[in-house]
Amino acid sequence: MARNSFSRISDYLCEEILMYLPPEDKIRLEFVSQQFKRTIFRRQYRFVIAPSCNEWSKVKNVLLKRFVGDFNVIHKIDIQLFDKILSKFRYIDDFAIHYNLDTSNMDEIFECLMRHCIRIRRMDANFFNVSEKTLDAFGKRFGHSLRVVKSSIVSNTKIPNSFALLRHCSNLVSLNGSEFLNEKLWNNVFNTMLENDYTNEEDIGEDDEAEAVMQDCNEFCLEKENFNEVVLPNLKSCYLKVTNEEGVNHLEKFSDVFMNRLEKIKVELVDYIARHHYMVNFIFPLGICKFRNLRECILTLKYNGGYDADFLWINNGLNGIAQDCTKIQHLGIDFIGHQDFFINHVLQALTCFKTLPHLSISISMYNKGLNFPVMPSLNQLDLAYPRLYQCTHLKQLVYSFPNIIVLRLHRMYFFNDVLLNSLIGLKKLQTLRVGGLCPPDVSTIGLKTFLNAAQQIRSIGFDTRPKIDTKTFEMIIDFVQKHENIYYDFDFCLEDFDPNEKKEFEQFFNKVQLPKNLSIK
């Protein structure tokens, strides 16, 4: 019995095996043995309470107390039970709460994290209703280890005391959440930089000298590349929201301080263009163009009308980004509620990017007359377009983007074999991902024609199951066996089939041995 006992397995191997257990099973199995109790929680690094997460399903249901609030049903975390569970998972470094929560006990939640956790690298929670004292203590405790801070819950009525936390996060790389980027926060960041760099030299209490410092501040920021005392010196990714004139000033100050640091930025110009056209013309060249090391830029635009002369900011702005941000690799534009002529102006302005490898376009309305520009440098295209089922629009992709290697189509309204036949002209296409609002009606014959014509295709995936049967897989196996030196990856969402079809597929795969160079999900 000693020879076959579990004690002969090392703690390291126990950690590797037991790390795949669900959290609720880990809590239940800690009483098996001392070895289990010693190793079972050590490899649990994430604590996620979210409606779409199955990992913490049972724990989530126990933790959350559901009750009816003022407007809708909200949830509240049981602090005592949360504290007991967190005392076991002391090694988590990724914490997230995505629920509609009552935020009255957020201070207690943060105190539990400080009491039990060793370090936290990623934080995603609602920072509203957290006192400045608690945020300051949390920053002192985990500021050196925090790399990503994100907030998924946006409030238009309250501004958190984010600076109390962020001033301690010297190693923060990514900051995501529009509520962090408010006037109070960035004024604190900006003033802290000025105090660290100027107040030690001489007394600047007089009014004229203080005004001179503020006037020369922008020139000082442009000349000095490395600040030793800048708040968030390692920030690489950030999310901004420009909805009023103050937002323009925030972006201007932010770009002065982080012009040589930021590599990824997301800017929302929501419901702002129609009211202040001159300000939008000011935002692009003097705001985004200052980020010289920018690799990724995502823009969200909302247009409610205007004159043709107002489109001048599009050409000037995108042209300025293309010229000044020469390192940019990914440009994304999300159109909200636009008409064809406005989107076409933006699309034609994209030709100023001569070496852009990755482009993302998202269109929310049913537009019919869009014209995509010719961009031979493009290698990857992410396109969300509800009316792209039309053959003429699909053919535009072949003519406009002939060198595409990766193509991802999202929010498609309807699909049939026209989709695959229209993309045959993309000679260099290797990866295709299709995401539609309804299942794609792709037949076995249409898929076979596409595979035989698309010489470079390596991977195809659908987010909803296409109309296929076992004959489709027989055709794929025959096709793959003719190309032994190429690895293929196909995803047909087989888990979405009904029980009878799923049983038929299981019987088929039990009888047939897949080639080594084929993977079917």
The CATH topology of the domain at 181-197 and 209-378 comes to Leucine-rich repeat, LRR (right-handed beta-alpha superhelix)
- Looking at the overall shape, the CATH architecture of the domain at 181-197 and 209-378 is Alpha-Beta Horseshoe
CATH class of the domain at 181-197 and 209-378: Alpha Beta
Helical stretch tally: 20
Secondary-structure class: alpha/beta
What is the straight-line distance between the termini? 42 Å
Q: If you compute it from the alpha carbons, what radius of gyration comes out, rounded to the nearest whole angstrom?
A: 27 Å
Mean pLDDT level: 76
Strand share of the residues? 15-25%
Major sheet, described briefly?
16 strands, parallel
Give the strand order, joined by hyphens, for the main sheet: 1-4-5-6-7-8-9-10-11-12-13-14-15-16-17-18
Low-pLDDT sequence parts: 197-228, 271-282
Protein name: F-box domain-containing protein
Organism: Dermatophagoides farinae (American house dust mite)
List keywords for this structure.
521 residues, alpha/beta, Leucine-rich repeat, LRR (right-handed beta-alpha superhelix), 16-stranded parallel beta sheet, two-stranded antiparallel ribbon, 20 helices, 18 strands, 17% strand, globular, LRR_dom_sf, F-box domain-containing protein, F-box-like_dom_sf
Write the layout of secondary structure elements.
Blueprint: H1 11-18, H2 23-29, H3 34-39, E1 46-49, H4 57-63, E2 64-68, E3 73-77, H5 79-88, E4 94-97, H6 106-116, E5 122-124, H7 132-142, E6 148-150, H8 162-166, E7 174-176, H9 183-198, H10 207-215, H11 217-223, E8 237-241, H12 245-258, E9 264-269, H13 277-286, E10 296-302, H14 312-324, E11 330-336, H15 340-349, E12 358-363, E13 380-384, H16 391-400, E14 406-412, H17 417-422, E15 431-436, H18 444-453, E16 459-462, H19 470-481, E17 488-491, H20 499-511, E18 518-520
Parallel strand pairs: 1-4, 4-5, 5-6, 6-7, 7-8, 8-9, 9-10, 10-11, 11-12, 12-13, 13-14, 14-15, 15-16, 16-17, 17-18
Antiparallel strand pairs: 2-3
Helix pairs in contact: 5-6, 6-7, 9-12, 12-13, 13-14, 18-19
